[in-house]
Amino acid sequence: MMTDCLALMGHMSWIGWLMPVAVLALLGLGIAALLKYLFTSAKTTNGACS
Question: CA–CA distance from 18 to each of 6, 13, 22, 31, 49 (Å)?
Fold first, then answer.
């Protein structure tokens, strides 16, 4: 299976190598943003008293 995938990526020139890297980068950034949102929103629930 890995050989078939690499052969297909080789036939598609540079876009075959760019697309998996781009998808993995976007997925990683999405997970990082979600984790940042979850951990920072939990700490700011007490609010500031004026």
Answer: 13, 9, 6, 20, 50
Give the residue carrying structure tokens 């075959």: 16
**Angle at 17 (CA atoms; ends 12, 21), nearest 5 degrees:** 145
- How many whole angstroms separate alpha carbon 37 and alpha carbon 16? 32
How confident is the model over 9-50, as pLDDT tens digits? 778 887 888 888 999 999 999 999 999 999 887 665 555 555
What secondary structure letter does DSSP report for 44?
T
Measured over the CA atoms of residue 17, residue 22, residue 25 and residue 30, the dihedral's sign is negative
